Amino acid sequence: MSKNDELVDAEQPNLIKWWGEQSFELNQPKAWQFGSLLFRLTRGLQEWRLEYHRPQVQYDYEQKWNAIEDPNFAFPQPLKVERYMFKSTQNKLQLMPRLADRSVVIKPVDPIYIPAGQRGTLYISTPLWIAGFVEGQKDPLFDIPVILPKDTWFGPNHRHGEICYATAVDGRTELHQLKPRAFRAVTPIEFHNTSHQQLRFDRMNVPVSALPLFYSESTGRLWTSQIKVLHEGLDRPPRIRIENRTPPHAGEVIYVHPPREPASALFNMFDSFF
Fold first, then answer.
1. Is the dihedral angle over the CA atoms 212, 184, 148, 204 positive or is it negative?
2. Pairing, β 184-193 against β 227-231
3. Cis (ω within 30 of 0) for the bond into 78?
4. What burial class does residue 250 get, using C-beta atoms within 10 Å of its C-beta: 0-12 exposed, 13-18 middle, 19+ buried?
5. What angle do CA 10, 163, 111 make, to 5 degrees?
6. N or C: which terminus of the chain has fewer CB atoms within 10 Å of its end residue's CB?
7. With contact defined as beta carbons under 8 Å apart, do 105 and 167 qualify?
8. Which residues contact 103 (CB under 8 A, 6 or more apart)?
9. 3-state DSSP of the chain
10. What's this model's pTM, rounded to 2 decimal places?
C-alpha cells in the first residue's frame, strides 16, 4: 500500500461517506481499505472482477477507510475473487451501504433496566454491508459485510428460533455519546414500560432486514427508522412497531436503501422472541 494513503477517520462527520458512484475506464482497477477489509474492483470488457481480503480477526473499532493510491497493490492471502459476466460492461458502478441480511442480536455491555411506568430511547448501532449496483440490475452484484459479525441463535429453545448475527453495543440514552462510525448504522429504540414491574433489557433481536436505511449529513451518521417497544406485562409479549420515519435527532435525511424484507414477515418472530 502506498505510504501516501491516509486512513479517513470516521469520527469526523463530514468524512464518513465512503459510498457513491464510481466511474471506471476499461480494464481499470480501483482499490479501497474499509476498516481491515481490502477491496478491489476491476472493470473488464465483459466482466466485473471483485477481489477482497478479510483478515481472520476483525475488530469493530476499525472504522476508518481510504482509497488505495496503487490499485495494483498485492493483497495478502487468503484472497477471495468473484467475477460477474456481462455482454458488455458499463462504465459506472454504485458502491452502497446496506443493513445486515439477518436480524442482529444486540447485547448491551451493561444490562439496562426500565422501571415501571417509565419510557426512554436507547440508541444502538448495527454493522453494515457493502453492495455493488450497476444500471439495469435490480439486485446487487455483490453484497458482503465490511466487518463479518459472529453467528448466534435466538429463540426460546434449540428447536424454535433463528440464526442471527451477534454484536455487543454500548447502547446510549443520549445520541452525542454514540460515536459516528462509518460501518455501522444507528437505530433508535423507544421503550415504554406500562406494566407494574421493572423491565430488564439485556438481549434483543433487532429485525434490521426489515428497516430502511437513511443518511444524515448534518449528524454524519447512517440511520434506520425508529422501533417502538410497548411492554404491558409479563403475561404477554411486548408490542413492537417499526416507524416509517427517523427521529428528530437525525435531522434532514437522504433515503439510501429500502428494507431487504417486508416487516410483516418478521413481526411474529420478533414479538415472540423478545
1. negative
2. parallel
3. yes
4. buried
5. 60
6. N
7. yes
8. 154, 162, 164, 165, 205, 206, 207, 208, 209, 266, 269, 270
9. CCCCCCCECCCCHHHCCCCEEEECCCCCEEEEEECCEEEEEEECCCEEEEEEECCCCCCCCCCCEEECCCCCCCCCCCCEEEEEECCCCCCEEEEEEEECCCCEEEEECCCEEECCCCEEEEEEEEEEEEEEECCCCCCCCEEEECCCCEEEEECCCCCCCEEEEEEEECCECCHHHCCCCCCEEEEEEEEEECCCCCEEECCEEECHHHCCEEEECCCCEEEECCEEEEECCCCCCCEEEECCCCCHHHCCCEEEECCCCCCHHHHHHHHHHC
10. 0.89
The total number of residues written for the chain in this structure:
274
CA distances from 162 to 105, 156, 262 (A): 11, 10, 17
221: its cell numbers? 451518521
Strand-strand pairing, 80-85 and 162-169? unpaired
Residue owning grid cell 475488530: 59
pLDDT tens column, 218-247:
999 999 999 998 988 878 878 888 888 888
C-alpha cell at 45: 470488457
Average pLDDT of adjacent 10-residue blocks, the chain of 274 residues? 51 72 98 98 98 96 95 95 97 98 88 91 95 96 97 85 86 90 94 90 86 93 93 82 85 92 54 36
Per the CB < 8 A criterion, the answer to whether 241 and 227 are in contact is: yes
pLDDT in tens, 39-83: 999 999 999 999 999 999 999 999 999 999 999 999 999 999 999
